[in-house]
Amino acid sequence: MSVRIEPGSDTQDGSNSRIPKKWYLWIETTKKEGRAGYGAAAIAKGDTGDIVMATRNLYTESALGARLEILRIILNRIAPFGNYKIWCRDTTKKWEKIWNNRTRVPWKLKPVMEDIQDQKEKGNHMVFYNFGHPLVKEVKKAAQAATSTNISFSWP
């Protein structure tokens, strides 16, 4: 009796063990005085070692707009990997309020908020924690660099 392994899968049951199911997310927005836009950076590391990164200089009217934009960008970058559970560092509960739709947004930002909520409705989960990690400092540096220069970088 032979065991059939589906194309593109790594295991006998047809699942792909290399697709991350759990992601760790570090996300930051900053604004420098005298600059027009907000700098935003996010790094997501999958439990299989995959890394997704996005850095942008966002020209929005508010810090909330910058937070919504960078969260939507990183969630859309992770979406091709399938359903996921994200562990997000959140010391001030600002990301938790956005994810749980407990933030009032102006009408201009409604489409961005709806995109974030669509990710939640697809069965994706986000858990929040408040402890340090070495990548926190690196994400903050990337966000500050995005604030001072017109940078837009995503990987992969």
TrEMBL record:
Highest taxon listed in the record's lineage: Eukaryota
Protein source organism: Corchorus olitorius
Organism ancestry: Eukaryota, Viridiplantae, Streptophyta, Embryophyta, Tracheophyta
The name this protein goes by in its record: RNase H type-1 domain-containing protein
